[in-house]
Amino acid sequence: MKKIRVLICDDSALMRRQLAKIIDADPELEVIASARDGEDAVAKAHDLHPDVITMDINMPGIDGITAMQMIVENKIAPVLMVSSLTRQGAEATFECLALGAFDYVEKPGGTVSANMSSVSRTLINKIKAASVMGTMGRLGRKPEDMVDRLTKAQQRETRSARRKAIGITSGMDFKAVAIGISTGGPKTIFEVLPLLPRDLEAAVILVQHMPANFTEPYAKRINSNCKMRCIETAPGMAIERGVIYVAKGGFHTTLLKKNSGDIVVRTPQRPEHQFMPSVDVMMASVLEVFGSDTVGVLMTGMGDDGANAMVAITQAGGETIAESEETAIVFGMPAEAIRRGGAKVVAPSYKIAEKIIQAVER
């Protein structure tokens, strides 16, 4: 069996050794070379044509962001960023993802981490996911013109306002859109959320698998690019229409309907789950509160988190939308929802906002 060939780039010799030890321990992977800075990484990428490149962000000379751009623009190989768990690290990571990086793996101990073994399984899984044929094409895709899409979104917003003016409503005061997304999500989600109108008759609850320190700056990044307001969840926070709620990392996001009828956020750490927050846990809770007024959306990501909940939403009479293989950077989570019968609609990422609006307006 042909092994997946990996190029490591990090200015720390300790990090290069740790990463190589983890990668070479997997029988399906092999480290073909290492680079100590961005210039070295670009040169070796051109010479060796690896299947996947791991890239540190902070390096002397040509930094990881610039090197990643050069590699991606030349369509050499998918790049997996290795990022520190800090606010500054989060912002740099989001910039990398917007510019074409495949995904990221966090350094749990800072810029030079002595305990990379704690994220070894995540590192291995993401390298394997990045190596899948067609990944570079999906990372570099150019959806239909954004101006045209924003014009359509504005038309939808005007129509929604007219519907409210003449008293067209659904069974509840508003609906809930429960979105689950993982690997490839921080880039893909910007093909969806900016196109949702400010007056959407729904609250949007978003679970993106990422560390606790990343979700607040992620929510702020979304907020600055969307018509709808976006905030990170906090216990006791009221759920309101027209707001996007990003599930706080390290906790589940669930909902509670009070006797007064108000709906509020809870952030438990139970049940135990591979992911905190979990898409399945969030969607199941949203379904319990909103019933058939739930719209479930499952997008790019590894594994099957959210697939069972999508089935439950479908069976309860809610609407369900899964991202198609055409655009999914990793066709794992949505594929499982489709396979299990939990997707009434299957669509590419750049059409999902339109499908959400249609589902909310039904």
Notable traits:
Rossmann fold, 7-stranded parallel beta sheet, alpha/beta, 38% helix, 362 residues
What does this structure look like?
There is one protein chain. Strands 8-9-7-6-12-13-14 form a 7-stranded parallel sheet, sandwiched between helices. The protein has a 5-stranded parallel sheet with strand order 2-1-3-4-5, sandwiched between helices. The chain has a two-stranded antiparallel sheet with strand order 10-11. The protein is built from 13 helices and 14 strands. It is an alpha/beta fold and 362 residues long. About 5% of the residues have low confidence. Helix 2 packs parallel to helix 3, helix 4 crosses helix 9 and helix 11 runs parallel beside helix 12. The protein has 2 domains: 136 residues, Response regulator (Rossmann fold), CATH 3.40.50; 216 residues, 3-Layer(aba) Sandwich (Rossmann fold). The radius of gyration is 21 Å and the shape is elongated.
What form results from the Cα inertia axes? elongated
What name does CATH use for the topology of the largest domain? Rossmann fold
Mean pLDDT: 90
Largest sheet: 7 strands, parallel
CATH class of the largest domain: Alpha Beta
Q: Which ranges are low-confidence, i.e. pLDDT below 50, for 5 or more consecutive residues?
A: 143-147, 158-171
In the sheet with the most strands, the strands line up as 8-9-7-6-12-13-14
Fraction of residues in H or I helices: 25-40%
Report the CATH architecture of the largest domain: 3-Layer(aba) Sandwich
CATH superfamily of the largest domain: Methylesterase CheB, C-terminal domain
Quick one: how many beta strands?
Answer: 14
* Gyration radius over CA: 21 Å
